[in-house]
Write a structure and sequence with these properties.
The structure holds 2 protein chains of 2 kinds. Chain A is mostly beta strands. Chain A has no helices and 11 strands. The chains are: A mainly beta, B mainly beta.
C-alpha cells in the first residue's frame, strides 16, 4: 500500500533562518506531488506541484522554493523565513493515471518567531 | 476551478444524518464535484466525488441536483469522529499533464454534538 511521510511534524524557526521540509511517498512510482499551505483559519493554498523529477511548477510568488531530486521525494525550502511563512504545510500525491483522489500527508506545523 | 459556496459552520447531533450543502452555480459540463474533509491538525481526506448521478460509498452519499448547480454531502449516522472541516471542490476530471491540483476554499466546519 502507498504511504506518504512528512517531517518534521512541528517546527519553530526564527525569522531569517532557512527552512527545509521533506516529503516522501512509498509504494508507488511516478506520482504527481504537491505542496500546500494552510494559514490559521484559512483554506488550503497550493504552493507547488511536480509531475516528474526536476519538474516544478509554482502557483504563487513567494519566499519559498521546491525541488524534486528523486521520483518520490519532494522538498520545500526557504533561504530566509518570514513571519508570514507560518502555517500548516501539507504534501500530497496522486497516481499519474488517476484523476480522482489526492492523498495528503500528516503535515508540518511551522511557526516563525 | 469553478467557485463553490458553503456555510461556514454547522452542528449535528450524534447519530443523526449530517447534510452539508454546497452551491456551485458556475459549474461546467466536464467538471466533477469532490468532497474532502480535514480533521483538526491532519491532512485532508478524500470522501467522495460525482459528475451528475448520486453517489454512495462507505463514508457518505453525494446528492447532485439535476441542474448540477448544487450538491449535498450526507453522512448518514454522524459520529463524534466526523467533526471536521468539509470542503466542496469543483474541477475537471483531468487536467493537462496529469496535474490534478485542487483548489480548497474555507469549507464548512461541522461539529457533531454528543
Amino acid at each position: 500500500s502507498q504511504t506518504i511521510h512528512q517531517w518534521p511534524a512541528t517546527l519553530v524557526q526564527p525569522v531569517g533562518s532557512p527552512l527545509s521540509l521533506e516529503c516522501t511517498v512509498e509504494g508507488t512510482s511516478n506520482p504527481n506531488l504537491y505542496w500546500y499551505r494552510q494559514a490559521a483559519g484559512r483554506g488550503l493554498q497550493l504552493l507547488f506541484y511536480s509531475v516528474g523529477i526536476g519538474q516544478i511548477s509554482s502557483e504563487v510568488p513567494q519566499n519559498l522554493s521546491a525541488s524534486r531530486p528523486q521520483d518520490r521525494q519532494f522538498i520545500l525550502s526557504s533561504k530566509k523565513l518570514l513571519l508570514s511563512d507560518s502555517g500548516f504545510y501539507l504534501c500530497a500525491w496522486n497516481p499519474r493515471d488517476s484523476s480522482y483522489e489526492q492523498y495528503f500527508g500528516p503535515g508540518t506545523r511551522l511557526t516563525v518567531t | 476551478d469553478a467557485k463553490t459556496t458553503q456555510p461556514t459552520s454547522m452542528d449535528c447531533a450524534e447519530g443523526r444524518a449530517a447534510n452539508l450543502p454546497c452551491n456551485h452555480s458556475t459549474i461546467s459540463g466536464n467538471e466533477y464535484v469532490y468532497w474532502y474533509r480535514q480533521i483538526h491538525s491532519q491532512g485532508p481526506q478524500y470522501i467522495i466525488h460525482g459528475l451528475k448521478n448520486n453517489e454512495t460509498n462507505e463514508m457518505a452519499s453525494l446528492i447532485i441536483t439535476e441542474d448540477r448547480k448544487s450538491s449535498t454531502l450526507i453522512l448518514p449516522h454522524a459520529t463524534l469522529r466526523d467533526t471536521a472541516v468539509y470542503y466542496c471542490i469543483v474541477r475537471p476530471s483531468r487536467l493537462n499533464f496529469g496535474n490534478e491540483k485542487l483548489t480548497f476554499g474555507t469549507g464548512t466546519r461541522l461539529t457533531i454534538i454528543p
